[in-house]
From TrEMBL:
Protein keywords: Membrane, Transmembrane, Transmembrane helix
Record protein name field: TM2 domain-containing protein
Locations listed in the record: Membrane
Domain TM2: residue ranges: 45-93
GO cellular component: membrane
Length: 111
């Protein structure tokens, strides 16, 4: 016989042990399994790193390589002596910082 009750509006089933737990819970109090990462945390960190790389090494396109945009990074590297990539990198850095975490994640981290 099951003693579990059905989850209320702010509750959910634990994906590991099936116990009813709080929707906001990040770690199941029953089995101790981590249910999900805090939202946007990874994206937020990556965004800051990418912006920092763009500001410091942007002329070489390092931030593009960091985000997996190797073709664009290659172009920056090829034309770094024109200093145009330095300008573009400044714009990139500003765009990353102004972009919200979810958009950044969608655009650069997924797929
Ligand atoms: Zn659990």
């Amino acid at each position: 016989m099951s003693t579990s009750r059905s989850p209320g509006p702010d509750e959910q089933y634990c994906s590991s042990c099936g116990e009813v737990i709080k929707q906001a819970a990040e770690i199941c109090p029953e089995c101790g399994v981590r249910l999900r990462d805090p939202p946007g945390r990874a994206a937020s960190d990556k965004k800051l790193i990418a912006a920092l790389l763009a500001l410091v090494f942007g002329v070489f396109g390092i931030h593009k390589f960091y985000l997996g945009q190797r073709a664009q990074g290659g172009l920056y590297l090829l034309f770094f002596w024109t200093l145009i990539p330095a300008l573009l990198a400044l714009i990139d850095a500003a765009r990353y910082l102004l972009m919200d975490d979810e958009t950044f994640e969608e655009r650069y981290l997924s797929g």
